[in-house]
Amino acid sequence: MSHVSEIMESMEYGPSVEDSSAVRDWLARQGTFGHFIGGTFTEPDTTFETRDPATGEVLARVSQGTQADIEAAVAAARQAQGPWAALSGSERARYLYALARHVQKRERFLSVLESLDNGKPIREARDIDVPLVARHFYHHAGWAELRDSQFPGLTPLGVCGQIIPWNFPLLMLAWKVAPALAAGNTVVLKPAEYTPLTALAFAQICQEVGLPAGVVNIVTGDGATGAALVQAPVDKIAFTGSTEVGRGIAQALAGTGRRLTLELGGKSPFVVMEDADLDAAVEGVVDSIWFNQGQVCCAGSRILVAEAVADRFEALLSFRMSRMRVGPPLDKSTDVGAIVDPVQKDRILSICRAATEAGAELVGGQAQEGCFIAPGYLKNIAPANPGMEQEIFGPIATLSTFRTADEAVELANNTRYGLAASVWSESATVATDLAARIKAGVVWINSANLFDAAAPFGGYRESGYGREGGRSGMLDYLAEALISARPEEALQRVSATPSGDAPAPQGIDRTAKLYIGGAQKRPDGGGNYAVPGGVAPLGNRKDIRNAVEAAAKAGKWAAMGGHARAQVLFYIAENLSARAAEFAARTSRAEVEAAIGRCFHYAAWADKFDGANVQAKPGHLVNVIPEPLGVIGIACPNAQPLAGFLSLVLPAIAMGNAVVAIPAQNDPLAVTDLYQVFDTSDLPAGVVNIVTGARDELAVPLAAHEEVAAMWYCGTSDGLAAVDRAAAGNLKPVWAPAARDWTGPDAQGETFLRHATRQKTIWLPYGALPAGSGSAAY
Q1: Distance of alpha carbon 438 from alpha carbon 461, whole angstroms
Q2: Closest CA to 198 of 92, 322, 114
C-alpha cells in the first residue's frame, strides 16, 4: 500500500468518474434529434452522427439542416420578433431570468453532456462553462429591464443569425442568445456540427420556461447550413470561428447593410517579465492552454519569457507539464481531455510536424491513442516558423525569449491577430504599460482566461470586430435611431484636365492641392478635374498610399491625451471662426457655423469619452478602455461638403485617430483650404490627410490598405459593396453613416465616437482573491 507522502509526490489518484447515466438515458429517450423551429422540434430527415471524442462512441443522430430548414426558422423568428420586441423590458427580463434559473437547476446534467460531446474535462464544464452560462442570462435579464432607459432611441435589429464553434458550445450560445433576446431580437442559431447536443438541450429549456414560439430557433448542420444562414434574410450575423470563414462571411455580406459581429482566431501572447511570480505564471499557462486542450481562441499559445529567467521558467514549466493527467473527460482528476474530433487532432499534429521540420524542437506534445494529445511546447522557434504564425488550436504552445520590454511588445504584436494577451509582472507599472501597448482586445494581468458577462470580449485586426458582453455587447444588437435623410447628390463626371495649375472657370485662378503629411502636394499623376469655382487635383492610388503612410506616422497624436487634443480642436474652431466669411462665400453661413460648432462639440468630448470599471469577478478591477483605431479612411458625403467633412473627421481625430479623407467629389474646394486652418492650429502633420478625386475610385484602395484600421463610407449601395469587399481582406470594420442634414443635431454625438474607438478590456487582480478562486475559475 502506498504511503501518503508517495501519493503526494506521484499525484497518482484513483479514478473519480462523474456519473453520466442521466445524460445517457436522456439521449436514449431522444433517439434522433430534429431542429427546434417555432417552439417545437421538427421530424428528423437526413441525419449525421455526433460522437464522444474520448471513446468514439455515437451519442446521438442529429438532423442536417437544409436551406428550407433555415428559411422556416427565419420565418418563425420574423413572425415572433414583433410581439417579442413589444413586450416590456420587465417581461423579457423575466424570461431571461427563468432561463438562468433552469440552467442552474440542470447544471450537473449540462456539464456532463458538454464533456461527453466536446471532450473537455468535467471540471472545466462544471466549474467554468455552465456557471458562466447562467451568469450571462442573469446579467442580460438586467439589461432587458434597463434597455429603454440606458439605450434611449435605439431599437432591436430584428432577426439575428448566430453561428457558434465547438470549443465552448453552450457558453458561446449564451454569449449570443442572451444579449439578442434582451435587446428585443429573435434568433436563429446554428451550433457546431461536432457539438450540437447542449444547444438542443437548451431548446428544451426554452420550452420548459414557456419562451414564446419562434423567439429562439436552433438548426443543426455542417458548414453548408451555416452558409445558408448567412445568405438568409436576417438583420445580423454573429459568427465565432476561424478567420478564413469570417473573411468569407464579410465578403458575402458586402453591400447588404446587415450588421456583422466577428469573433475569430487568435495567437495570443503570454508575456512573462523577469520580475514575475514564475510559479503563478506556470499555472497561468496551465489554465490558458493546457487545461482546455488549447481549444480556446484566446489561449496564450505564444509564451514570451524574459531571457534572464527563461531557464528557471522552462524548468518549472516542464516539471508541471509532466505531472498533468491526460485522460477521460468525465474523470474529475483529468487535466487534459480529448480533442474534439480526429480531423482536428490531425491538424494539430500536422502543424507540429511543419514546425519541427522548420527547425523548432517539440517538448512533450505526443499523440496518444484516440483523440488525445499530451500537452507540449515548441522551443527554439523562429518568428516565421509555421508553429509561431498559425493558430494551432491544441495543447501545444510556443516558447521564446526577449531581453527588453520593448522587444516583448514587438514580439507580442508580431501577428495578424489581436484577440487577447496575458502579462505577468509583480510591478503594476510594468504590467499596465505592456497592457496598454499590446494590440489585443482583452489583456489579463497576472491571470489568464477570465470571462464575465459584464466584461466586453472581442478582438483587433484579423481576430474580428464587435464585442460580446457588457454594454457594448448590447449596443451590437441595437439599431441607431432613424435619421431624417437627405438624398445622396448625383456625382458629376470626373474628367481629367491638363496637369499643372490650370485656370479655373469664370476667370478665377484657383487650383487646390492635396494635403498629405502636413504639406500641400500635387497629385502623383499630376491631373486635375474641373469643379464649380475652381480646379481640384485628381488623386489616385499612389496618393492614397502616400496619405496612409503619412497618417500611420502620426502616432504621437494619440499619445498626447484627450486634454491636449481638445486644445487643438478648440484652436481649430478659433481659426475657422476668424475666416468664417471666407469659407461661407464658398459654402454657406449655416455650414460654417455648423463646422465651428462641431469643433467645439468634439473638443468637449476629447477628454470625456471615458471607459468604465465594470462589476465582474470579485477580486479584480476590470477596466474597459476606449482606444483609437489607428488610421481611419473616410469617404465623405457629397452634400454639404464642409459640414459633412468635419462632422466625420473631427470625431475621428478627437479620439486620437489619424484620417485619410476623400472630400465631396463635386465640391472639394470648400475643404482643401482647411490646410491653412490646420497648420495654424498646431495640428501635427499626418493627423488629417486630404485626397480629392473620384470618390469610389479612391475609396476602394483606401479600404483595402493594410494600414487602415477602419473605413467610413458615405455614398451609394454599389460603392458600399465595393468598399465592404475591399475591407474584408484584412477584416476591418466598415461604417456607412446614413445620409442626413450635416448641419443638424443628428450629425454629431456619441455614435460617431463609438465608431472611432474600439474597446480594450484589462483584467487586474485587486485585493485578496476569494479562497478557491483560480485564475480561470468562475
Answers
A1: 12
A2: 114
Q: Where are the beta strands (DSSP E) in 574-699?
A: 612-614, 620-628, 631-635, 658-662, 688-690
pLDDT at 292: 65
Q: What is the mean pLDDT of residues 617-621?
A: 87
CB atoms within 10 A of CB 34: 20
Identify the CA nearest to 388 among candidates 506, 498, 304, 288.
Answer: 304
Model confidence pLDDT, tens digit, residues 24-82: 999 999 989 999 999 999 999 999 999 999 999 999 999 999 999 999 999 999 999 99
Q: Which one, of 329, 241, 589, 266, lies nearest residue 459 by Cα?
A: 266
Whether the per-residue pLDDT at 376 is higher than 80: the answer is: yes
- The C-alpha atoms of residue 394 and residue 18 are separated, in whole angstroms, by 24
| Alpha carbon distance, N-terminus to C-terminus of the chain | 37
- At 52, phi and psi to the nearest 5? -75, 115
pLDDT tier, 17 (very low <50, low <70, confident <90, very high otherwise): confident
Q: What is the distance between the alpha carbons of residues 258 and 160, in angstroms, rounded to a whole number?
A: 10
Quick: pLDDT tens for 639-668: 899 999 999 999 999 999 999 999 999 899
The residues carrying an active-site annotation are 263, 297
H or E stretch at 269: strand 269-272
Nearest Cα residue to 711 out of 742, 732, 739 = 732
- What domains are there in the chain, each with its CATH number? 22-264 (3.40.605.10), 269-458 (3.40.309.10), 500-615+627-747 (3.40.605.10)
pLDDT of residue 7: 65
Question: Is the separation of the CB atoms in 18 and 202 below 8 Å?
Answer: no
Q: Distances in Å between the alpha carbon of 680 and those of 562, 572, 574?
A: 20, 8, 10
Best CA proximity match to 590, nearest among 747, 743, 746: 743
Quote the CA–CA distance of 116 and 671 in Å, as a whole number: 63
Residue 299 Cα distances to 436, 449, 617, 766, 776, angstroms: 19, 7, 19, 23, 11
DSSP 621: E
What phi and psi, each to the nearest 5 degrees, are found at residue 155?
Answer: -130, 160
